Amino acid sequence: MIVAYTAADVRTAEEPLLAAGVPLMDRAAFALAGVVVRELRARRGRVAGSRVVVLAGAGNNGGDALHAGALLARRGVAVLAVATAERLHETGLAALRSAGCSVVSVADGGPGARVWPGDAIAEAFTADVVLDGVLGIGARAGHSAVRGPGAEVLALLGELVADERAGGRGDGPCVVAVDVPSGVGVDDGDVPRPGGSNGSGSAPAGEPGAVLAADVTVTFGAPKPALLVPPACASAGRVEAVDLGLDLSGARPAVARLEPRDAAALWPVPPRAAHKYTRGVVGVVAGTPAYPGAAVLTVSAAVHAGVGMVRYLGSPGVTAAVVSHRPEVVAGDGRVQAWVLGPGVDPTDSAQAERVHGALAGVLAQELPAVVDAGALTLLPERLAPWVVLTPHAGELATLLSARGEDVDRAQVEAEPLRWARRARELTRATVLLKGATTLVVGPDDAVYAQADAPAWLATAGAGDVLAGLLGALLAGRAQDLAGEPSLVAALAACASLVHGRAAHVANPGGPVAALAVAEALPRTVAQLLAS
Ligand SMILES: NC(=O)C1=CN([C@@H]2O[C@H](COP(=O)(O)OP(=O)(O)OC[C@H]3O[C@@H](n4cnc5c(N)ncnc54)[C@H](OP(=O)(O)O)[C@@H]3O)[C@@H](O)[C@H]2O)[C@@H](O)CC1
Ligand SMILES: Nc1ncnc2c1ncn2[C@@H]1O[C@H](COP(=O)(O)OP(=O)(O)O)[C@@H](O)[C@H]1O
Ligand SMILES: [K+]
């Protein structure tokens, strides 16, 4: 599991080490320089003779970058530091100068010759590596946007680098972010607008913010939430965490990301003496005559995920389609350990709406775990419970929140997904799984998971139905454990997202996938996870 800690928790953990004179910055800079050396070797085939531009802000983040620059210079790299502030980290600047590097400044009164931002950008864009050490965890929450001349350099260089990457020429610089890409909301993953503020001013997904997107982020002590949470995580590139020996055992992880071995440990493997009822029964209310396919996809996923039994409830016509596709399915009501409610359910279909309401009453009264998706998201009572997992995409979350008095649209949810997923959890008391390229889960006690396991090929109609069926099977399979451990529900939701994403890879590595193929890849995916 990868766990991220807030800036405040990392600072608190640094304090005793700094007080004891542990040279944390030296460790950070040494590791940072090591990553740059590896990137230079891999991308340019050499270290000595390469060019590195260090963008350095006023604080310790700049200090890390300057010390790393000095170490690189001693290995024959031509290093130019560009100061984005009037004053730079003192020992970092001294180390850089004594290693023979040049320093220029885009800030008035800064060290070295004053240069225009355009000149600094030209130097950076033609370098082999750019180190982004403008701002780290010193960014103020809610106001993380870089201020001053550094903002212009980062924004324009960011645009050039993005264009170059999109063109696929491969001759632009490798961008290495120091600790975090400068300017992101460290704890919430926001990306501010160019020249703007955070919050409602955040850049909508897809638009560039004033952040220089990194190829690699070298993060110190522990990953920070922004490296896992969208939209900022899209600017982090590969994340390399450097162990500084911080003791974070007293701190609560702010965000977690399950890895395959975690998912394997969470997966319900039937014991020798299992029978279908001990393995769990999942009830599915999905599909309407207008959307029969959603029912087929949901039950297919549940069957392939390996549940003890699937019971299906729907109109006679849809039931016939379901059973003809999946003869394992049992049609009609009966006892279940978990429910999946809503895929392909048109809320105006009174028969299905009634089944959803009936199931929900049992869910709340008997503490039965449930997945609530798509059409059923508009059929909910005000308050739910943590064992209910809502699985909206951004548009559905905006609708759900708007129905509860929040003034928010899809673009705003995409700009601040963690904030709005948390708000939905607060308002409904349910566990919230917000689907996207990175899927967020916010569970009881505000536990947050961020999973990014899927290829973009998974963004296809019906993929959400597969996730709902898969998660329902998982909840049914672990229903007994859930009763005594409500926080498990969020971990299981994250686990389902991981398995779903990996199944898309397994279904057709490197190419397009159909939703049904993802469901059919589940048995192999789970087997691979359990074997690894
Ligand atoms: N402690 C250690 O030994 C270790 C620390 N580590 C490293 O230190 C980093 C944290 O360093 P930090 O605390 O100095 O904060 P940092 O991110 O450099 O920014 C503060 C400076 O930026 C300025 N500034 C603030 N907001 C701004 C804005 N919006 N736009 C522009 N400027 C802004 C602010 O100026 P002010 O606003 O106060 O005038 C201040 O000068 C951390 O990320 C990690 O890299 C690791 O090496 C481990 C060892
Ligand atoms: N860019 C992307 N990369 C990876 N996965 C994605 C991306 N966009 C969406 N997904 C995933 O694809 C699925 C789409 O689900 P959903 O929007 O509910 O589709 P549908 O309602 O048609 O089934 C979700 O699991 C989501 O996390
Ligand atoms: K930085």
From TrEMBL:
Residues 259-529 form the YjeF C-terminal domain. Its cofactor is Mg(2+); K(+). PROSITE patterns: YJEF_C_2, YJEF_C_3, YJEF_N. InterPro entries: Carbohydrate_kinase_pred_CS, CARKD, Nnr, Ribokinase-like, YjeF_N_dom, YjeF_N_dom_sf. AMP binds at residues 435-439, 464. The keyword Manganese does not apply. GO terms for molecular function: ADP-dependent NAD(P)H-hydrate dehydratase activity; ATP binding; kinase activity; metal ion binding; NAD(P)HX epimerase activity. (6S)-NADPHX binds at residues 60-64, 179, 294, 344, 393, 465. Keywords: ATP-binding, Isomerase, Kinase, Lyase, Metal-binding, Multifunctional enzyme, NAD, NADP, Nucleotide-binding, Potassium, Transferase. Residues 5-252 form the YjeF N-terminal domain. Gene3D superfamilies: 3.40.1190.20, YjeF N-terminal domain. Pfam families: Carb_kinase (PF01256), YjeF_N (PF03853). Residues 192-208 have a biased composition (Low complexity). Signal peptide: none annotated. K(+) binds at residues 61, 132, 182. Residues 183-208 are annotated as: Disordered. GO terms for biological process: metabolite repair; nicotinamide nucleotide metabolic process. Its EC number is 4.2.1.136, 5.1.99.6. It catalyses: (6R)-NADPHX = (6S)-NADPHX; (6S)-NADPHX + ADP = AMP + phosphate + NADPH + H(+); (6S)-NADHX + ADP = AMP + phosphate + NADH + H(+); (6R)-NADHX = (6S)-NADHX. Binds 1 potassium ion per subunit. Bifunctional enzyme that catalyzes the epimerization of the S- and R-forms of NAD(P)HX and the dehydration of the S-form of NAD(P)HX at the expense of ADP, which is converted to AMP. This allows the repair of both epimers of NAD(P)HX, a damaged form of NAD(P)H that is a result of enzymatic or heat-dependent hydration. Belongs to the NnrD/CARKD family. Homotetramer. This is Bifunctional NAD(P)H-hydrate repair enzyme. It comes from Cellulomonas cellasea. The gene is nnrD.
